[in-house]
Amino acid sequence: MLATPVIVVNYKAYPQATGPAAVKLTEALERVAHRAGASVAVAPGLVDLRHVAEATKLPCLAQHCDPIMPGAGTGHVTVEAIAAAGAKGSLLNHAERKLGLEVTQASVDRLRHVGLWSLVCAGNVAASRAAAALHPDMVAVEPPELIGGTVSVTTADPLIVSAAVRAVKDLAPDVRVLCGAGVKAGKDVRRALELGADGVLLASGVAAVAEPEKALLDLLEGLR
Amino acid sequence: MLATPVIVVNYKAYPQATGPAAVKLTEALERVAHRAGASVAVAPGLVDLRHVAEATKLPCLAQHCDPIMPGAGTGHVTVEAIAAAGAKGSLLNHAERKLGLEVTQASVDRLRHVGLWSLVCAGNVAASRAAAALHPDMVAVEPPELIGGTVSVTTADPLIVSAAVRAVKDLAPDVRVLCGAGVKAGKDVRRALELGADGVLLASGVAAVAEPEKALLDLLEGLR
Amino acid sequence: MLATPVIVVNYKAYPQATGPAAVKLTEALERVAHRAGASVAVAPGLVDLRHVAEATKLPCLAQHCDPIMPGAGTGHVTVEAIAAAGAKGSLLNHAERKLGLEVTQASVDRLRHVGLWSLVCAGNVAASRAAAALHPDMVAVEPPELIGGTVSVTTADPLIVSAAVRAVKDLAPDVRVLCGAGVKAGKDVRRALELGADGVLLASGVAAVAEPEKALLDLLEGLR
Amino acid sequence: MLATPVIVVNYKAYPQATGPAAVKLTEALERVAHRAGASVAVAPGLVDLRHVAEATKLPCLAQHCDPIMPGAGTGHVTVEAIAAAGAKGSLLNHAERKLGLEVTQASVDRLRHVGLWSLVCAGNVAASRAAAALHPDMVAVEPPELIGGTVSVTTADPLIVSAAVRAVKDLAPDVRVLCGAGVKAGKDVRRALELGADGVLLASGVAAVAEPEKALLDLLEGLR
User: Fold this and answer.
1) What is the C-alpha R_g of chain A?
2) D85 touching C, CB under 8 A?
3) pLDDT in tens, D34-53
4) What domains does chain B contain, in order, with CATH numbers?
């Protein structure tokens, strides 16, 4: 499993994190993570997944996958396909790619079946609890209204983080809990850990800035 | 544009056409296509797209893409991402990955905007006409009940092919019309062309067989 | 068919147009329409459809229906169900309830099969053309960014109306074209007709105001 | 709350349970339930909901509702709309109308907010546990492959019933657990109760048969 505390960087569909830029960004993040001895994982776009995974030792997560079996599934992404590309796991049910209850459950199970991690996103405490009931490896609580914003969830709504941590751990103590939305600075990461989280999930703060190395360095300060 | 008549091979999520096997399959198809001087395009899975595109001169199509702009779009695939990976275009609205009317329209427009082809699938004549009204580069008519089956659409329902050709060309003469579903042999390809189609879209007949080179060779017979 | 020019009032899920209020609203609109001798149709919520249809002579449209056949279809609404409830037709593919290309096509066909009208919404000219290619009874062009706003499409983007009218009539002269989004006053209706539209589709301007009778009266001024 | 053991009859989109037939069916079921002093609830189609609720004292559930707030929501069904129609609650996430994890959660909360019951369907034990984590009033486990079939889940897969009961009660002891799929006879109901279920959810066995009264009578035998 991912060493915690962990920082997961979601590349979304940012132009600064797509195609050749995705590899360059990853190399920069790896340098910083390596120097700091910190646990950092990246989630590049599906099309860039193999390219990035081949270029880095950082664990790579797919941003999404489908629970269908290999076979007829045009436009779908099997867990086997992301495993073959070098992914160590997958995000599921991100606010920008919501999944059905059964689809999430089946995806968690399919990922485990091929030895990959699952990181299920949830928009609130109740949804985090439901996600935990599926026994994924990680749950990330991200209030949708704060995603992409400038105020960190740890400042805007710290209670949602601590409540999600409690809800998840009560139900499934082994499941790691991340928090996300608006996380951009070392103090946000520190606060997340104080609130009981095992790490953070972030995106634009690192994947869509002019100086990603500096941004990650600042975030890693929060891990000390 | 693709030279016609064209044979488009959809790799779907077949294990024989995923990961390293996708590259090997493509190389085999390229050899056969090159020798025969035939126009063949391939549609590998999203995760394998770049890998395959880098390994071949055959035009590569994505199996799906989303019309969102680069930016926040976790788990989505932009036209910019598939272009950067070397795709020449994308399938849209395949029966296994249906899209909304406006999403299909926006995807056709976004693909054109970045200089990529669009191949819109449609399940019947009326849907083919609607697809043609979006002025994509290609429309592929594929009756869903025949997809993955053993009887070619050209045998089971030849009238749907000729009617779709007429419907599309009446409305948008420049749009190429393919047909698909159950196409597996040279005689199916020949019949498709006789019915007015500009080519065929197929999958399991080439991408999920023990001897894909032989299968493609047989299909190419139909082009003579 | 609906006499044109027509004003279609979409009740959406407005509290002022749900439950008993839906019936009261409809009776008020019927009085005004009757006095003015104008063609007005209403689209109440699915749950209120029968109730409203039983209480009025105004033609009632469902806000949505599914193309599935009667049978197993929990939570789905068949064309047979809305017909039995007294609907004369259905909206399809509204910006708030988008449908797949094939689903829209199948719904248009299913509605026609049981003798009901179809009114397919479309967000732009290209989508209107695709909608027209399905040969529904009506197409309503509504730019999504103007829906629910204070500026009428006829003021904000008159060219989209005239272009949609042309695109639809070129392809299918018998299909009526409505326009919508932000339509609230008689002058908006007048302008819509000048631009070639056969009527308007509106919602909040009548269904979510304190004095719907007055609002409709004002709109009907535009028909003169 | 519903008195248990309970039999919930889902009318789906069966022609024998749509329009005027829905009312007649309900009256027949009410007679039988009344005579037997049994707890029976019905879930008519959305369009028939008010009609049926007005005609019966049996508790009525909607087959589906959306968690959107009253307002702009064309084609969507608010909890306020089904409450105004006389529903006592709603099915959610039926295998034929799957919902997202967050949508299910929001719907459960919205229903509770207006004083209505929620009955969340789930296709297996893990999904039942996730559903229970949302604290709905009821969870119904229904293996999708057995739905509409001739063999009762209680015969084909009794362990899924007992395991779902345990999983739900462990997590949320107050949540009632129903089972469904293929349930057609009194012995199926009896077996469901022996396996720990609080009742059954069924459809075709009562709502699509020639003699629904007789069918329900037989089922009620299982409650003794």
Assistant:
1) 16
2) yes
3) 999 999 999 999 999 999 99
4) 6-215 (3.20.20.70)
